[in-house]
TrEMBL record, chain A:
Keywords: Cell cycle, Cell division, Cell membrane, Cell shape, Cell wall biogenesis/degradation, Membrane, Peptidoglycan synthesis, Transmembrane, Transmembrane helix
Signal peptide (UniProt feature, chain positions): none
UniProt main location, coarse: membrane
Provenance organism: Thermaerobacillus caldiproteolyticus
Protein name: Cell division protein FtsI/penicillin-binding protein 2
Domain of life: Bacteria
Name of one Pfam family that matches: Transpeptidase
GO CC terms: plasma membrane
Protein's UniProt keywords contain Ion transport: no
Alphabetized PANTHER family for the sequence: PEPTIDOGLYCAN D,D-TRANSPEPTIDASE, PEPTIDOGLYCAN D,D-TRANSPEPTIDASE MRDA
Annotated ranges, domain Penicillin-binding protein dimerisation: 56-301
Swiss-Prot/TrEMBL GO biological process terms: cell division; cell wall organization; peptidoglycan biosynthetic process; regulation of cell shape
GO molecular function: penicillin binding; peptidoglycan L,D-transpeptidase activity
Domain Penicillin-binding protein transpeptidase, residue spans: 348-678
TrEMBL record, chain B:
Keywords: Cell shape, Membrane, Transmembrane, Transmembrane helix
Annotated protein name in UniProt: Rod shape-determining protein RodA
Chief place where the protein resides: membrane
Localisation: Membrane
Length: 708, 391
C-alpha cells in the first residue's frame, strides 16, 4: 500500500466539513423562519379559501289566461353548456371545442371573420409569428412599451395582416370548431354558458353525456324555451325575452346586475315579459364553488336549490281574445273587399270589465308587408295603447257631461240643431239638420251642432250667424280637464310599459274648440276610449285597466297552479265630478243610440238580447299612416264605444278603425265588429255557464287537457 | 497477511444504518405523497418500487465493493471517455435519446425506463479528478504557486467538456452539481488559500457585474447573457407572487406547504396543499408539511450525519486517493441536498434536482448507491497499522 497522505489533507477535509455544516445550518435556519416564524401566516393562508357563489338559471314563470289556460309555456330543451374557470385559456377552450365538434353539429353562420382570425393565429402559430417581423417587435420594445402592450400591438397587427387566402386554409370541419369555440369563449367565469340548445338531438345529448370526462367544463342540462301556445294571438302584448346570445339588455345592465342576474341571463325585454320580469324570473339555484387561491375549484355544494319563476294569471280571456282577433281580421278583409278603403289597414278592439277594469281582450290587427313583400295581417294589439287617433262622436258623452258640470246644460236642455255659419270658417253642421232637440236625442242621433253650441257656451261665446266667433281660450283647458277625468288624453294606468297619452292640438282658435267637442281635434288611444266608456257605464268611476289578475306560487304539479301570492284588486283612479243624475242622462242617450229607432247604431244592435248601450263615432281625419304619398289625405275614422247590458254593465268595449273610408257609402265596420264581439262575449259566457252547471267541480286539469 | 483478510470484511455499519434510516424515510414520504399524484400515476405503488430500487442499490454497493478502488484509479480515463461518449450521444441526438420538457438528457433503456448518463458522469468525474490531483501531488510534492495553477488548469480542462455538454442539454441543476464536485475537490486538493479566495472573489465580482448589467442595460442582458426562460427562474425565485410563472407558482405552493406544517407538522397523510412532483423534486415539502420543523430537521440531520460519517472515513483513510474520492462524493451529496431543500424553502432558484436517497427515482438512487459503494470501498480497504502512529 502506498502511503501518500499529507498533513494538510485532514485540515482541508475539516474545512470542507465546516462548509457543509454552514450550508446545513443555513437550511435549518431558513426552515425555522419558514415554519416557525411565518408558519402561522402560511397556515392561515392555506385555510383561507374563497367561496364563489354561482347562480344557475331556472325556468321562467308561465303565463295563464283568466280561466287558467296556459298562454306562455316553457318547453324543455336539451342543452349543452360550458362553464369556464378563472384559469381557462384559449388553448383549453380550443381543445374542448375540438372534442365537442366530434360529437355535435353546430351551425356555423354566426362565425365572424374575427373568430376565424383568432382561430387561425391560435392554430398556426408559426405562420402567425411571421406576420410581424422581429424588427417590428423590437421597434415596439424601443417605444418603451411594456411586454403586455407589445403583445397586444403585435396581436392587432397580426390580425390586420391575415389575408383572405390565409383564412381559406380553414376547412369546413375547422369552421365548426370555431363556431363551438366562440360559444365557449363568450361565457363568464364560473357561469354556465349555453353552447347549443336548439336542435340538440338525443344522440348528440347522449354522446356528449357519455364523454363528459374528456370535456372539462362541459355539462348536459335542460334549458327552457318560451312556447306561445296560441301562436300569434296577443303575441305583441305578451312581449319578448332576450335571446341567449343577447344576454342582459345593455341599457339596463346595472339594474339587472344589482339584482343578482348573470350577464348571459335571458330577461323580459318588452311588455308583459318585461313589466313582470321580477315575478316571472325565478330564484336561481345557488351553488357555492370553493376556490383556492389560484382559482381552481376545490369543491361545490348547493346552498339553494332554486325556484322557477312565479306564474302570472292574466285578466285576458284567451278564447275571447282569439275570437275577437278573428272577427277583426274578417271585418278588415270584408271592408277591404267593399272598396273605397285604400287607406284602411288597421283596427282595434279593447274589451274590459267596466266595474273592475280587468281587460278581457285587447286586440289589434294591421296589414303589413312581410319580408317577402306579401301583405299579411300582423298582430298589433300594442296599438291599442301606443297609437292614437281622432275618435269622433264617440266622445260626445263626455262633452254632454262637461256641459252639465259647467252649468251650460241641464238635464233636458233643448238646443236647436242648425247649420252654423261662422265668419271665416266653412259651414259647421250635423250630418242632417235635426231641429230643436234635447241632449238625449243629440246623443241618439249624434248631433254635432248640439255639441258645438255647448262648447261655445262653455267658452262664453255667443253664436251669431255670419259673425266672427270669439270664445275664451281657457275653454280648451276646461273641456280637456273634464275629458281627462274619463281617461281621455291621460295615461290610463295600465300595467304595461310604453303607454302613450295621445296627442293634443296646439292651436286655440275657436273653430278647434268646436272640433274638440266632437272628438275631431285631440287624439286618443283605443284603450283610453274603453276606459272612458267604462267610466260612463259604471256610474262615474275611472278604473285602472289591468292585465294581470293574480300571481301564483310556482307549483311542481304541471296541471295545477300553485297558491295565489297576490291578487290585483280593482283600482279606482278617480270619480268624475258629475252627479249620478247627469251620468244617468248620458247612459240613457247611449241606450237610445243602440236600442231606439233613429239611434245611429240601432240598425245593428236593436235586436241584441243583451241590451247594449253605446255611441258611434265618425271622425274626419287626415291620414298619417305608413303610405307616405297619401299623408294628409282626407279620410274618416270609424269608432264605436259601448257596454252591455245597459242597466248592469259587465262588459265595456271600444272599437277603433282608423282611416276606414274616404267617401260614402261606407262599410260599417265599426258597428259590424261591435256587434260581433258582444255576441261572442255573451255566447262564451253562456257556454261557460252550461259547462259549469254540467260539471260543477270542473277544475284546471280538465280544462287544460281539453286545451292541449 | 491474515490481518488483510480480516480487514477485507471491515464494513462501516454506521453508514449502512444511516442508509437504512434513509430508506425508511423515503418509503414513508413517497407513500404519503401517493394520493396527491395525478390520476394516471395512481396505479403505480411508488413506495414499494422505491424499496425495490434500494434492493438494486445494495446490489450496486456490493458490486462496487468487490473491486479494489485502486482499479478505479487505473481505469479512470476509460470511464471518463465512456461517460463523454454517452453525453456526446445525447448532444447528437442518436437514436434512443429522450427529450423531456425541452432537455435531451436521457437514454431510453428497454425494460428499465429512462437512464440519465450525467448521473454516471458525476461519479466518473469524481474518479478522474481525484486521480489528476493524486498524480499532480506525486509529481510536485512541494508545489509552487505555478504548480497550483497547473493543477487548476488540468482540472478545468477535464471538467469543461462534460460541463459544456450538460449546459447545452440544457441541465442547469446537473451543471451546478458538477461545479460543486469540482469545488470540493479543489478545496481538499491543497491548492493555496490565496488562489481559492481569488476564485471566490472573482465569482462574486462577475455576479455583481451581471446584476449591474441586468439593471442598467436590460436589452444587452436579454440578448447575450440569459434567455427569458432562464431569467424566469430568478424572477420566480425572488418574487414568486409577482411572477406567476411556473417556478413562481411552484415556490408559492412549496412555501405554503412547508410553512403551514409549522413546528409539529399536520400529521401523517394530512396534506392540504397541492404540490407539483410531490414524490420526486418536492418530496421535502411533503415531509415538512406532515412532520413539521422537527421532522424536516431530523431528515436534514440525517444527511448531516451521513456527511459526517463520510468525512470520518476520508480522514481515516491513509490513502490520498481514497480521501479525494470521499471529498468528491461529499461535495456532490451536500450540494444536491442543499439545492433541493433550498429550492423548496426559497433559498435557491428552482431546478429539477431530486433529494438524494429520499426522492423517488431509480437511476439517481443507483448513482448515490454507487457513490456510497465507493466510500464504503475506501473504508473497507483502510488498514489500521498496528505500529503506525496516529497522524
Amino acid at each position: 500500500m502506498k502511503k501518500r497522505k499529507k498533513a494538510q489533507v485532514p485540515f482541508r477535509l475539516n474545512m470542507l466539513f465546516f462548509f457543509v455544516f454552514l450550508l446545513f445550518s443555513a437550511l435549518i435556519l431558513r426552515l425555522g423562519v419558514v415554519q416557525i416564524v411565518y408558519g402561522e401566516q402560511y397556515r392561515k393562508e392555506v385555510e383561507r379559501t374563497e367561496d364563489e357563489i354561482v347562480s344557475t338559471p331556472v325556468p321562467r314563470g308561465k303565463i295563464y289566461d283568466r280561466y287558467h289556460r296556459v298562454i306562455v309555456d316553457n318547453v324543455p330543451l336539451n342543452a349543452i353548456t360550458y362553464t369556464r374557470t378563472k384559469t381557462t385559456t384559449p388553448e383549453d377552450t380550443l381543445k374542448v371545442a375540438r372534442q365537442l365538434a366530434k360529437y355535435i353539429d353546430k351551425p356555423v353562420e354566426k362565425v365572424t371573420e374575427r373568430d376565424m382570425k383568432d382561430y387561425w393565429i391560435l392554430t398556426r402559430r408559426d405562420k402567425a409569428e411571421k406576420k410581424v417581423s422581429k424588427k417590428e417587435r423590437k421597434q415596439f420594445a424601443k417605444q418603451g412599451l411594456s411586454e403586455k402592450e407589445i403583445d397586444q400591438k403585435v396581436y392587432k397587427l397580426t390580425l390586420e395582416r391575415i389575408t383572405p387566402e390565409d383564412l381559406k386554409e380553414i376547412t369546413k370541419d375547422e369552421l365548426e370548431v370555431i363556431a363551438i369555440k366562440r360559444e365557449l369563449d363568450s361565457g363568464y367565469a364560473l357561469t354556465p354558458q349555453i353552447v347549443k340548445n336548439k336542435g340538440v338531438t338525443n344522440k348528440e345529448y347522449a354522446v356528449v353525456s357519455e364523454h363528459l370526462e374528456e370535456l372539462p367544463g362541459v355539462s348536459t342540462t335542460t334549458d327552457w324555451e318560451r312556447h306561445y301556445v296560441y301562436g300569434n294571438t296577443f303575441r305583441s302584448v305578451l312581449g319578448n325575452i332576450t335571446k341567449d346570445d343577447e344576454g342582459l339588455p345593455r341599457e339596463r345592465l346595472d339594474h339587472f346586475l344589482a339584482r343578482d342576474y348573470s350577464r348571459n341571463d335571458r330577461v323580459g325585454k318588452s311588455y308583459i315579459e318585461a313589466q313582470y320580469e321580477d315575478v316571472l324570473h325565478g330564484k336561481k339555484a345557488k351553488i357555492k364553488n370553493i376556490v383556492d387561491k389560484s382559482g381552481n375549484v376545490i369543491s361545490t355544494e348547493q346552498i339553494y336549490e332554486g325556484q322557477r319563476g312565479k306564474d302570472l294569471v292574466l285578466t285576458i280571456d284567451i278564447e275571447l281574445q282569439q275570437r275577437v282577433e278573428k272577427i277583426i281580421e274578417e271585418e278588415l278583409k270584408a271592408a277591404k273587399r267593399s272598396g273605397g278603403t285604400p287607406l284602411l289597414d288597421r283596427a282595434f278592439v279593447v274589451m274590459m270589465n267596466p266595474k273592475t277594469g280587468e281587460i278581457l281582450a285587447m286586440a289589434g290587427k294591421m296589414f303589413t308587408k312581410n319580408e317577402q313583400g306579401k301583405v299579411e295581417l300582423r298582430d298589433y294589439a300594442l296599438g291599442t295603447m301606443t297609437s292614437a287617433y281622432a275618435m269622433g262622436s264617440a266622445v260626445k258623452g263626455a262633452t254632454v257631461l262637461t256641459g252639465f258640470q259647467t252649468g251650460v246644460l241641464h238635464p233636458n236642455t233643448y238646443i236647436r240643431d242648425e247649420p252654423l255659419y261662422i265668419k271665416g270658417t266653412p259651414v259647421k253642421k250635423s250630418y242632417q239638420t235635426m231641429g230643436t232637440i234635447n241632449e238625449l236625442t243629440a246623443l241618439q242621433r249624434s248631433s254635432n251642432v248640439y255639441m258645438f253650441k255647448t262648447a261655445i257656451a262653455i267658452g262664453g261665446g255667443k253664436y251669431q250667424p255670419h259673425a266672427p266667433l270669439s270664445i275664451d281660450p281657457d275653454a280648451f283647458t276646461t273641456i280637456r280637464k273634464y275629458f281627462s277625468q274619463f281617461g281621455l288624453g291621460v295615461k290610463t294606468g295600465i300595467d304595461l310599459p310604453n303607454e302613450i297619452i295621445g296627442f293634443q292640438g296646439t292651436s286655440k282658435l275657436p273653430g278647434f274648440l268646436l272640433d274638440l267637442a266632437i272628438g275631431q281635434y285631440d287624439m286618443y288611444t283605443p284603450l283610453q276610449l274603453a276606459q272612458y266608456v267604462s267610466t260612463i257605464a259604471n256610474g262615474g268611476y275611472r278604473m285602472k285597466p289591468q292585465i294581470v289578475k293574480e300571481i301564483h306560487e310556482p307549483s311542481n304539479d304541471e296541471k295545477q297552479l300553485g297558491p295565489v301570492i297576490s291578487e290585483f284588486e280593482p283600482v279606482v283612479l278617480n270619480r268624475i265630478d258629475m252627479k249620478t243624475e247627469y251620468i244617468k242622462r248620458v247612459q240613457e242617450g247611449f241606450r237610445r243610440v243602440m236600442q231606439e229607432t233613429g239611434g245611429t247604431a240601432a240598425a245593428f244592435f236593436a235586436d241584441a238580447p243583451y241590451k247594449p248601450a253605446g255611441k258611434t263615432g265618425t271622425a274626419q281625419a287626415f291620414y298619417d299612416g305608413p303610405i307616405k304619398s297619401k299623408r294628409n289625405a282626407e279620410t274618416y275614422n270609424l269608432t264605436l264605444v259601448g257596454y252591455a247590458p245597459y242597466n248592469d254593465p259587465e262588459i265595456a268595449f271600444s272599437v277603433v278603425v282608423p282611416w276606414a273610408y274616404q267617401h260614402e257609402p261606407h262599410y260599417p265596420i265599426n258597428n259590424k265588429i261591435g256587434r260581433k264581439i258582444l255576441d261572442t262575449y255573451f255566447e262564451l259566457k253562456k257556454e261557460r255557464m252550461n259547462h259549469d252547471s254540467e260539471q260543477t267541480d270542473s277544475n284546471l286539469s280538465t280544462e287544460q287537457s281539453n286545451e292541449q | 497477511m491474515e490481518k488483510d483478510k480480516l480487514s477485507q470484511q471491515k464494513l462501516d455499519y454506521n453508514l449502512l444504518f444511516i442508509l437504512f434510516l434513509m430508506a425508511i424515510v423515503s418509503a414513508i414520504a413517497i407513500h404519503s405523497a401517493q394520493p396527491s399524484l395525478p390520476e394516471k400515476l395512481q396505479n403505480v405503488n411508488f413506495a414499494s418500487k422505491q424499496l425495490q430500487w434500494y434492493g438494486i442499490g445494495i446490489f450496486v454497493i456490493v458490486l462496487t465493493m468487490l473491486i479494489d478502488y485502486d482499479r478505479f484509479f487505473q481505469i479512470a480515463w476509460y470511464l471518463y471517455g465512456f461517460g463523454m461518449v454517452l453525453l456526446l450521444g445525447l448532444e447528437l441526438h442518436v437514436p434512443g435519446t429522450v427529450t423531456l420538457k425541452g432537455a435531451t438528457s436521457w437514454y431510453s433503456l428497454p425494460g428499465m425506463g429512462n437512464f440519465q448518463p450525467s448521473e454516471l458522469m458525476k461519479i466518473f468525474m469524481i474518479i478522474v479528478l481525484s486521480r489528476i490531483i493524486v498524480n499532480h501531488r506525486e509529481k510536485y510534492p512541494e508545489p509552487t504557486i505555478q504548480d497550483d495553477f497547473k493543477l487548476l488548469g488540468k482540472m478545468a480542462l477535464t471538467t469543461a467538456p462534460p460541463l459544456l455538454l450538460l449546459m447545452k442539454q440544457p441541465d442547469l441543476g446537473m451543471s451546478m452539481v458538477f461545479t460543486a464536485i469540482v469545488g470540493s475537490l479543489v478545496l481538499v486538493s491543497g491548492i493555496r488559500w490565496r488562489i481559492i479566495f481569488a476564485i471566490v472573489l472573482s465569482a462574486i465580482v462577475v455576479a455583481a457585474i451581471l446584476v449591474f448589467i441586468f439593471f442598467k442595460f436590460p436589452d444587452f442582458f436579454h440578448k447575450y447573457i440569459l434567455e427569458d426562460y432562464q431569467l424566469n427562474r430568478f424572477y420566480g425565485w425572488l418574487a414568486p407572487y409577482e411572477y406567476s410563472n411556473e417556478q413562481g407558482f411552484q415556490l408559492i405552493r412549496s412555501l405554503l406547504a412547508i410553512g403551514s406544517g409549522e413546528l409539529y407538522g399536520k400529521g401523517y397523510k394530512n396534506l392540504d396543499v397541492y404540490l407539483p412532483e410531490p414524490h420526486t423534486d418536492f418530496i421535502f415539502g411533503i415531509i415538512a408539511e406532515q412532520f413539521g420543523f422537527i421532522g424536516a430537521s431530523v431528515v436534514i440531520s440525517l444527511f448531516f450525519l451521513l456527511v459526517y460519517r463520510m468525512i470520518h472515513i476520508a480522514l481515516e483513510s491513509h490513502d490520498l486517493y481514497g480521501s479525494y474520492l470521499c471529498a468528491g462524493v461529499i461535495g456532490m451529496i451536500t450540494f444536491q441536498v442543499f439545492q433541493n431543500v433550498g429550492m423548496t424553502i426559497g433559498l435557491l432558484p428552482i431546478t429539477g434536482l431530486p433529494l438524494p436517497f429520499i426522492s423517488y427515482g431509480g437511476s439517481s438512487l443507483a448513482t448515490y448507491m454507487l457513490a456510497i459503494g465507493i466510500v464504503l470501498n475506501v473504508r473497507s480497504r483502510t488498514k489500521k497499522f498496528m505500529f503506525s502512529s496516529e497522524d
